[in-house]
Amino acid sequence: MWMAASIQRRWAILNRCNQKKSKTKETFFKKNQKNIGLTVENLEEEKQNKEESALLTLTRLKQPPRYGVFLLNDDITTMDFVVSILKDVFWFNQQDAEELMLKIHHEGRGQCGVYSFDVAQTKCEQVKKMAKENNFPLQCVLEKTP
To answer: What is the pLDDT of residue 29?
Structure first.
């Protein structure tokens, strides 16, 4: 794109300097084709190729599937431990962690976040590892979100 602008500037300068000599764009491009490597047709083809590649790039991009991470309620895991899991693994603040912990306690499960598959799986493994280290049967599951 910048080459086309550069060629047009050169042509304009040439026209101003040599008003006596009448040159057309075609002869200017033909004369400078060896140095520049572009013709009017090549410029048009290059522009079309860029537009096509931009369209292809846009159509190739697709959002990765997202997965929700859910904690399940049980009768043995303490509320304090669930709050600490929510703070340490999912980066909740104290108030939000307590609210979600109560939701898990009353409804049986609660969504801790939505992530790409790898991140969701890692968070789930961290929860299970911490629960096992502290002798709690806390369960964490993944579900694909729409």
So the answer is: 54
Which parts of 18-140 fold into alpha helices (H)?
25-36, 40-60, 79-88, 94-107, 117-133
Can you tell me the distance from the alpha carbon of 104 to that of 108, in angstroms, rounded to the nearest whole number? 5
Condensed to tens digits (0 to 9), the pLDDT of residues 35-74 reads: 555 555 666 676 677 666 666 555 667 889 999 999 999 9
61: left (phi over 0), alpha (psi -120 to 50) or beta: beta
What pTM did the predictor assign? Answer: 0.59
Q: In what helix (H) or strand (E) does residue 114 lie, and over which residues does it extend?
A: strand 109-116
Residue 120 C-alpha from the chain's centroid: 17
Token code pair at residue 75:
């009768």
